[in-house]
Amino acid sequence: MKKILTPTNYELIPLNDKTNVRFFTSIDPGSYVAPHWHDAVEIVYLLEGELKVIVGNDSRNLKAGQCAMVTPNQIHSTLCTSPNRAIVFQIPEAFMEKFIPHARNLCFSLQDPAASPVLQSKVELFKETLIKMQFLTDLQPDGAVLRFNSLLFETLFQLYHNFCTEAPKKDTVQHSRNLERLEPVLQYIASNYNRPISLEEISGVAILQPKYFCRFFKKCMGVTFLEYQNEIRLSKIYKDVTSTSDRISDILERHGFTNYKLFRRMFSERFHATPTEIRKHVSS
């Protein structure tokens, strides 16, 4: 496996050397992935369970049998409060550019259920292709790579003809510049989330004045710097709550969440349960 890394890539994607994409069946016992982005179209086809997908200010709850698509460099997060199984498919922009004209100026989206029977038939055809690709990936019959790659190009054709629109070039360029400036900031937060980070410290990473940095961060991420740092802490805490038997107080201390009242409120708002209730639900 290799990784794609570009100036606007906050999440590193491990790519298959023989297909140049990432395709796998995810089995998630429960997780919260804080806001992030990557230089790839991301498709999630939920096979079992439920999954909340938040893209910008929009949120939707995927049910089994439904599909969601996130366009490259679009900030998004996911929340799985109970076990689910899904196909996850990520196609880098750099790969699409070889075959789709002006791929970096395109927005990819898919609504499931769709607004009309005709559009829904296109969605169903796309999901059928994903199931065929899953069979090849999971069972690896003879010639699997050859057939997978043929289906990969079928999905690219479907994406280009059925699920994309052109974005204004000016907006695309500015968005890329914003993400390029944000990338070292989010990397810095990810490395130091469990300790206090001052506004002066983090604005220095972005090479911006503190007041301008606050406006810039809120505009790009939809939350304040402090709120984002707490979201990172919550994602780490949720993982420990669901995968360890450590005391909640020890988990909070490990991840730098010192305000217990704020933690309880944020945890309840995000997961609609207490840590103890989440533990019982995951283990049942």
UniProtKB/TrEMBL annotation:
Instruction: Report the residue ranges that make up the HTH araC/xylS-type domain in this protein.
Output: 183-281
InterPro entries, A to Z: Cupin_2, Homeodomain-like_sf, HTH_AraC, RmlC-like_jellyroll, RmlC_Cupin_sf
The record, for SUPFAM superfamilies, names: Homeodomain-like (SSF46689), RmlC-like cupins (SSF51182)
Task: For this UniProt record, give its keywords in alphabetical order, as a comma-separated list.
Answer: DNA-binding, Transcription, Transcription regulation
SMART domains for this protein: HTH_ARAC
Task: Tell me the first and last residues of the signal peptide.
Answer: none
**Would you tell me the protein name for this molecule?**
AraC-like DNA-binding protein/quercetin dioxygenase-like cupin family protein
